[in-house]
Write a structure and sequence with these properties.
Layout (H helix, E strand, L loop, with lengths): L2 H13 L13 H5 L2 H12 L2 H14 L14 H6 L1 H7 L4 H25 L1 H13 L2 H10 L1 H29 L2 H26 L6 H14 L3 H38 L1
Helix pairs in contact: 1-3, 1-10, 3-4, 3-6, 4-6, 4-7, 4-11, 6-7, 6-10, 7-10, 7-11, 8-9
Length: 266
Amino acid sequence: MSLFQALLIGIFAYLGRNQVPWLFGTTGGFYCVGRPLVAGFIVGLILGDVTTGILCGVAIQAMYIGQIVPGGAMPSDVNYASYIGIPLAMAAGGGAEAAIALAIPLGALGTAMHNFTMTLNSIWVHRGDKCAAKGDVKGIMISNLCGTIPHLIERVTIVAIACYFGAPAAEAILNALPEIVLRFLQVGGKMLPALGFALLLKQIVAEKWMIILFIFGWIIMQSTGMTTTALTLVSVAIALMFVMAKYGNSSATNKEEMQGDDGYDE
């Protein structure tokens, strides 16, 4: 990996970091460029292997698909896991399993660095409050811009250094690992995405019987070879029929009751 490639990956890691405003805030940054799937595509373009990049991104995305960031508190930094884990795994000649193995400790490191920079930026928050009390609009703007500097230095520097100097180390580690350890990483790499989906189901499933719908969809895909897009369209149709069957009659009844009440009032 060249120094230019490492710096480019570091810049995209910064743009996809939480609390960075340049890509329409967190909308285009943290929740788009910062997602592992998008990061895998970007890293794949930079390193010249889009297919491997996307496969690594899918694996990490599945692992963290159920993660939420309540109040900005990140359990694990998917940005570090993606923009360091994916390029190191690709540079070392590994695949999705290697990316997942690297993502776990990197996610913890990223959370620590995120908390450090956010604590450091409290200086600019207090300065912005003082400027607001004085009606100093320019001072508020400068405080906001200065708050992005620690994020820029931390993300670009650490990601670029890790990608540039860490690639040989990651390759040496993977080559030195015994076969049984690599096998364990492969098995664990397939289990962790399942854990991510389980966390997601726990959030979105309102009633326990809805688990049957998930199992039903999995059986259809495995037995018929149906694509995810086709299954999604079928699921939307079933969901619409379910909603109409459950709430359609109640809506009609409420409408009749309202008309009856109007007639009574007259």
